[in-house]
Structures are given as C-alpha cells and as structure tokens.
Amino acid sequence: MEPISATAAISQLSDIIRWTSNVYDWICDLREASKDLREAKDEINNHLSLLERVRCFMRSDGQLAPHLAFLAERGGPLERANGAISDLLRLVGGDASNDNPLDSIRMVVADFKKLTLNEALWTTKKREITRARQRLEAQRSIITGALMPALGTVMNEGVNEIKSKLSGYERKQAIDRFWPPNEEMKDIHSNRKQQQEPETCNWVMREEAFIHSLRSFSSHRDHCRFICIHGIPGAGKTVLASSIIEKVADDCNSHGYAFYYCLYSRKRDETVPFLKWVLRQLCTQAKSLVPRKLLAAYEAEGTLSIEDLLDCLEEVSLSYRNGVYIVVDAVDESHPRENLIQVLSRIGTEERFINISLLLTSREENEVMGTIHELGDACSLISMSNKNVREDLKRYVHEQLTKIARFNRWQNDRFLGEVESTLTDKANGMFRWAVCQLDVLKRKRDPESILDALLELPHDIFDTYERILVEIPQEDRNFAKTALALICNNTADSAETLVAACLYCVPFGDISLYVCEPLIQKLGMTCVVPTVDTLRDICGSLVSVTKLNRPPFTILNREREIATGAAKFFALSDNLVENIDLKVIFTGLSQFPRPFQAQRRPPMTRYEEFCLRMTEKALSPNGSKSRRPDIVHNGDLIDVVLKSLTPISPHFMYLKKTTPVALMRAKFPNWLSVCDWDINPPDHSPTGLLVNLAILKWKDLAKRYLESLAFQSLGKDDKKKTWTEPFQLKNAPEETLLGYCLREEHLNFLRILVRHGRASFENEPEALYTAMHVLQHKSRALDDLEFLLRSGADPNPKPDNDSEERFAFSPLQLAVYVLEYDWVELLLEEGADVNVTRGGTIVPSVALWDDSLVQEKSCLEICSDAQPAWLPNLESMRAASGTASERYSSVTELKNFTKMMSKCMTTPA
Predict the structure, then answer these.
(1) Mean confidence (pLDDT) of the chain
(2) Model confidence, pTM
(3) Gene3D superfamilies of this UniProt entry (predicted)?
C-alpha cells in the first residue's frame, strides 16, 4: 500500500477511536462504571495517542512512511485495531455512524444504565470488553514495534550525517560545551556504593515491576516503564538507587543507562542539571552522539531550552536499539521540585519516550507523591516498607549480631534472637535506622542494659539521631558539635583536618583528652592532635569516613521542636553553619608552634596548611564570594580574626622563620604582605594590627576594631603611641601608621583612622609634604588636603616641635612652586605664613624638586620663576623671551597667584 494510504488509514482510525473515547468518558463518569470500563477507556486513549504520534512522524519526516506502509495493508494492524475499537463501541451501545454525536452519546448512557441492571447480561458483556481490549493491546504492541525500528533507522541516518559534518574532536567539544562533565556526581555514586551492606538491596530484584523494567523496551508493551520507589527518611533509598545503577550498568549490553543524584545542599531546581548530565552520559556511551538540536545550537552558538533538551533526549534514546534506563535519586531534594517532577512525569508517560525506562526515588512528600498518584497505572509504586525489604533487613541484622564482637561474646542465642526480632520489627524497612541502633547497642556494657534500650527504641531516624546526640558525654560535646557543623558546611578537606579543627572550641581543661602522646615525644613539643578514631568514637554512626574527597552527604531536620529539645545544644543555625569554618581556620593559626620550642624546624601539618590556605582566601577582598562581609558582621569572628592579624601571633614568627619567601609568594601572598617587616614589627600591638589592616586595605574591619572596647579602653598615651610609633617594612622608609597610609594613598583608610580612632596629624610634620607629593594632579587632592589640615596637620610645620630647627621650605612655598592655586588659597586660609623667605636646613624626605629654587625666595618670586606643568620642556622655556611673568602674563591663573601673593605679603619682594 502507498504511504499516503497508510496516513489516510491512520486518520480514519483515529477519528473512530476519538469517538469511542468520548463515549467511554461519559460512561466512566457514572458511579456504576466498573474497573473494566475505566481500564478500557485508558487503553483506548493510549492507542489514540500512539496513532497521533505515528501520523505526526509520517507527516514531518517522509523517510518514515515506507517503513510503516505495511500497517495499512488489508488484514493488517490498523484494520484489526479498527475491528477491536468497533467492538468496544458496540458492546456499550455506541454507533459511530450517527450524524449527531451528542444525541448518540446520551442514548448510549441511558442504554448502559439499563444494561448494568441485568447482571447476567452485563457479565457476558464484560468478558467481551476484556477480549476486545486484549486485541487492541496486541495491535498497539505491533504498531509500537514497527515504529521504534523505523525511528531508529532514521535516527541512525541522521547520526551518520552529523558524523560526516563534525570530527570526533568537534563532537566532543559540542557535548562538553552544552553538557559539561560532573565529577561530583561520580564521587557521590562511588560513596553510595561503599555504603552498601552485602545483600541489603537484593529485595528490589524480587519486585515484579522492577524485573520487567530491566528488560528491553519491547516489554513496555505489556508493562509499566515508569517506577517510583518511595520511603521515609533513613529507609536507604539513596543506597538502593546506587545498587540499581550498578545492576543496570552490569546488564547494559546494547542499551544505555544514566543516573542523577539530587542533593538538598545544592538548593536549586535540578531540572536542567539533570537533563544535561543524563544527556552527556547517553551521548558519551553512544560514541559522542550529537543530536540534531545540539548541532544546530553549536553551529549557531545558541542555547538549549528545557523543551530542546527533551527533544534531544527523545532522539538519543531512540538511537539505542534496546532502550535506555535512567535512575534519579531523591527527587524530593530538588528545590523547587515542581519543574523536575513535571519533566520526569513526561519522560515516564509520553509515548515519544517509549524507549526509556525511568526509575526515581523519593521521600513520601505530598508535592511529589501527589503528582505520581495522579498518573494512575502509568507509574508503578514500590514502597520501601514491604515483606521483601523486611526479609533482607532481618538477614542484615542477623549477620551484624554474629559479626560484632560485643554481641558474639555472650553466646546466648535466645538473647540475640530477641535483639534481632525487635530491631527487624521496629525498623519499618529503614536500614539506616537499624545501623544506628546496632551502633548504640554495641556501646552497652551488658545484656541487661541492651534489653532496657530495646524497650525505648526511637520511632524514626531523626529521633535516633537526637538520642545519639543526647548520649554524647558532656566533655565531648563541643568537639562533636564543631565536627557536625564543619561536615554540614563541607569545609575540611580531609578527616585528619576535620578532627584537628574540632579542637578550636574545646575547653582548655579538656584538651588533654585529645593529646597524642607519641607525637609529643617525637617532636619535643606540646601538640594536640586528635585522630579519626576519636571522631568515630564520639560521633558514632552520625558520621562515616571514606577515602573520597567529595562534598559530604548530610541529613538536616529543620523542625523547631528538635532545636529546643534535649539535643538543643547541637542545634545549628544557618549563620553558625556558614561561618563555623572562618572561626576554625583563624583560631587554628594560634595553634602554630613557635620555632624555638623545637630542636629542629617543625613540619607544617595538614591542618596548619589548611588553615593558612583557607585564611588566605578569606583575607582576599576580591570576588562575589569574598568572606570579608561575613567576618565584619559577626562579632565573634571579629575578635578571632583581629587576633590572627596581630604581628605577635605565633604563625607570624613561624612563617617568617620557617617558610621560604618563594613558597609564601606563590601560595600565601596576603600573608606574605603582612609579614613583610624589615626587622621586627612594632612592639605596640594596636599599631602592628592597624598596619596590617592598612596593608590589606580592610577599612571595614579597622572601623570595627577602632569602635571596639579593646581599642576604646586604651589609655591616652597608648592611643597616641598607636599613631606615632615608627616601624619599617621591607624596601620602605621608617614611618608611622599615618605616614604609611599617606605614602600608599590609602586615603579612605586614613579617614577611618581619624574619624573612628581620633587619630591626629599634629605629630606628623611631613604630612603635608607627603600629601602634596602623592596628590598632585589628582581630582580629589584639594578635599584630601583640607581633610589633613582639619585633622591637625600644621600649615607651618617644624621637624620637631621641641626645637628651633626648620624645614628648608614650607608647604606654601611648595604649593606656589607647583602652581596649585587652590592649594595656596587653602593653606592661606589655614594660617600658612606667606612671609617665609629663608628656609631651614632639613629637607622633607619626599621632595622631588631642587630645593634651591624655593629657598631664600618669597612666594611671589617663586611664582615668577615657576615652570607650569603644561610647558613641554626646558628647551621651549629657553626659546621663549623675557621673564616667566612676561611669557605667561596672559594666563589668568598666574595673574591670580600674583595678586594673591601681593595682597597677602606684608613686606613686598
């Protein structure tokens, strides 16, 4: 038969099916409608959807028509389906030839009500409806079976065409650009595999729905291809998902597989990341397959929407002869969830994804399970609480009781049997719950205490965690709380670093509990180093230690009653979790050993290096992820950070004496800058601290320090010493804090010192000279000079207030020489002496001019001889005739200088 005949036959059959579907919809609205009729209605609608899909394909892609022409042959699948549909319609009294469909449907409903009253007749009708349904299902399977190879053939032709356009390297580039690698996902999967206990996940292999889903796509004709495994927190859904992924991967001969783990800690909508990662896996497995929409976006340098990604998934899935298996874990942890659930429902139910088996796991959240329940039979539900789970759980508990030495030593079968049955019965399918209870019970000293504990077992996993926390000894609670906060924040890069960091808030009197004696003897110093075993012993089953360097898996409960209950000490606010790492790393700097305490140069531990590396990042002012705001707005952090920036802190001496400059420059440039003293830092701690803050340009923290009780409680002499104590950085002159800020142009920092620290320039005789040197030609120069004069800078400075020595020239003479009219006016307003004609012998340290040009000359004389900045060079000056005043008499600014000087001078020059 010609292709056009196949299309016409499909259209004709679709019209009949649509009519029949309407009849069954009306009937199924009746209370008397049986399950058989409702299932028949679903089958009719599924068949209609399939035919519409085939017709759409044939119209959009002419290559498909020859592959599907046999469907419309005499006695073929379309004709037989037409017969089955006609029988379904006839059996409920419908007539497709009626010109008035609405009247016909009303008549059908009335006849159907009468029919259901005759029980014997209705029983026969139901049997015939069931047989007609089976015939229709068989034809649908044949049509589906014809469609999939046809689509696969066309897709393969498209793949070959794309391969001819792009090289293997270009295809990989296209995939990497739109669907980048995700190493985190691989690490998560590896960790979940390690958490699997032997045989604990075997129960799912006995579930009928799962067994059928593992078969090739052809099984979807008779069985559901969409599965949702649901359970309460702690039931082991994630570990089960990892086991299923491994099973699918082992069986993948000619089918594809992909997986995705949602995580609450990401706090994002997982829809797009899920689609991208799944597509990357499937395209990579298919030897860098590039879907047509990806190719178009790659060539146009465009983007892909969610609909585009779904189209790509459809195309990629059809390229696999035996279908694709996708596993998605923890759908409930997507935030928000709505988009992800809708996309998964579409993949699991729409006919175009017929080649995909989809399995997801989720907690029993209404937002997730409500949508799944609406799908009806299109999604198979498997509960984590069933007899198969219980059998595996019982086996696991039995093996653990046999293997754990504390239980095994009692050799009491009756006692162990009671423990086994109690844990199995109350676990409610939660493997994690059972693991935690076993960990708690093995810490008991005798069978009596174990039996007492069995009488008061917690109901769920969160009650279990709360009980474990409550039973942590008082002296270990600070250690445990810090460990849990750091794990939640994913700060420490290793277990060794984590356990060392946990000591930061342990009371000093309890430190001896964590001292590692062998290390003390080896290094000859007091070094507190807890071990990973310490962490395991204290936290028990709350934590697990792996060899993977990956983000931790955490279970959080945000119910307020838990935070105010018996375990409220361990409640972690968002603020604490976010900033705990800052307090740990900066406090860790105080644990650095002093080099002279050891007979040899002490090695830097992993924890010490971690503290330096993380504080180096925290000190950086750049980037949207800068931690400086977190520090400035947290009073507890401020004290710790300020202490770490005081030059007398232990790590300063350690770094200076033991760490090569090249290493510091490469890894810790911020710390190098604040350790860069020529000899020794200032003896006065506030001076050294503020110098370091100035070097780091951290004016916000300087403001908080100057406003703090620590600074405000300093005596008058100590505050004065803060501003006047000299120091010397490498390759720099000896100077004071205020002088350094002027020389380095840290003017905003300088204003903080004056406004909040009451700093004064009355003891800075060279302040104006330095300012004029660094501010010349700057737009805010006048404002800054005015600020200095208002802050105590003397317009007529002396090198030493207690002597008669004078500078070689005054700031006013300098301002006139550089022809800065506004500066001269400001200095005169502030009381500068315009009559100075002979300077002293001391030349300011920052002068960049020939002082003989201004000494022994009045300001008017200097003005006449000065060379304006806009004069190109000395040759031009010599080429000009007459005096400077004659040459530039037309310049208004020079006239203003002359008038001002003449007016202000009491003795004319």
Answers:
(1) 75
(2) 0.60
(3) Ankyrin repeat-containing domain, P-loop containing nucleotide triphosphate hydrolases
